[in-house]
Amino acid sequence: MNQASEAMIEPYTLLRASLSLFKKAPAELEQLQLRQVEVQAKNEYEIESRVLSSDEAAGVVVSDIEVERAYQEISGRFEDEDAFLAALAANRLDVGQLRDALRRQCKVNTVLERVAARAPKVNEVEIGIFYHSHPEKFHKPEQRSARHILISINPDYPENTRDNARRRIEEILETLKRKPHKFADLALKYSECPTAMQGGELGAVAKGVLYPELDQALFALKEQAISEVLESEIGFHVIQCLKISPAETMSLKKATPKIQQIMQDRYRRNCQRTWLASLPAATRSA
User: Where does the PpiC domain lie (predicted)?
Assistant: First the structure.
């Protein structure tokens, strides 16, 4: 993007698009990324201009308090005022330009919120249809909280040859049979899995997440029970089932607030899209 082309784009919109797409300021982007940001920024500015040229925008007034709140939210992300002002300057902005851009954004947001408020309210019949049409969204499979100890097989290391790895895990299992409460300590000391730092904890898992050998053993164990030695493609394991959380299906009554929110948001977005599509193209000065 050359300097003349960049100058045509409102700096705040360019910065906002850059952060949205790549979480970086425009100056930190590669050339191809800059072109993508430029396209998005121009599109966003054109849409905002159409919104601000609409009849709905005519009566919208943004208060100084609202602008100040938005300004403080942005400036508060920086260590101090000098760092904030330096960041503005690096993006071809000053305090006045930022406040003007924020006032414009607040006005656009207010108009779109008013348009979204026209969306129809979700009724009970629609909620029921959604619930019965998407059962997978409201069913939680059985989960088991577990922890394990891994001794890997690696013939390049004497202690991890197949025979030695098997011997080591069996010794650990014998200790666990006498002192099951030592599982986390033994995992921290001996396990070769990154989970060792958390006492071997795998968290809550559903069927099909772990290696098949571990999966089958875990879902056959009772709470607090410890498996025999298990072998997977990466080595030998001992696994413990800490807690069983049975499968459950959320009732329609319990799911209703979630469904209502999902559908209402969808109606609001559809209402905004339909309205935006009906707007005439705005002039550059809008």
Answer: 141-243
